[in-house]
Amino acid sequence: MGKNCKVVVCGQTAVGKTALLEQLIHGDHIVGQPMFSTIEDIYVGQIETDRGVERVHFYDTAGLDPMKPELPKQYLSFADGFVLVYDVTNEKSFQSMDKLKKSIEKHREKKEAVIISLGNKCDMKEGKQVEFNAANKWAQGEKVRLWEVSVSNRQSLVDPIVWLTTKMTQPPNRPTFPAFGASRRQKASSNSELS
């Protein structure tokens, strides 16, 4: 097991942040049950990646004001990753993603944080207001990975979180140096050219 990662889950009120986390971590969320506003909560998950099992702390934030979708500063100082959640049946919740992402980029202290976006409630085809192609165009422009997910399909939640965890736990790139023998050969050939 590597480092303990900290992920902030954010978005407007009623986009399903808590339901996503409860289904992802516990697998016991019941679709259609009454919703309650979250002030703040922390979930801890063991996420299996190709390098083993990683421990991830998910910070479930209160829903953000649609007019000013900015995270409180305390979340920006420690996060290794961010999950931006919008509701595909609510155009305004998607429109706030751009401001939220730019706010995170501008104010976060850890410059290497990974950001992904989840379009929740993709199973609600009739009320859909945000088409995947439009959302994906925004995501590509912002260099954010995007998935459409549904609480009723737990696997749709697992794939993006495994991807996020894998990105956050990648070993840092190590500088490479030429092999010792190669540098000696280069030096010897340059000396012979001088003769």
TrEMBL record:
It comes from the Eukaryota. Transmembrane segments: none annotated. Gene3D superfamilies: P-loop containing nucleotide triphosphate hydrolases (3.40.50.300). One of its GO terms (molecular function) is GTP binding. Residues 173-195 are annotated as: Disordered. InterPro entries: KBRS, P-loop_NTPase, Small_GTP-bd, Small_GTPase. PROSITE patterns: RAB (PS51419), RAS (PS51421). Keywords: GTP-binding, Nucleotide-binding. The keyword Nucleotide-binding applies. SMART domains: RAB, RAS. The keyword GTP-binding applies. Pfam families: Ras. One of its GO terms (biological process) is negative regulation of canonical NF-kappaB signal transduction. Belongs to the small GTPase superfamily. Ras family. KappaB-Ras subfamily. This is NF-kappa-B inhibitor-interacting Ras-like protein 2.
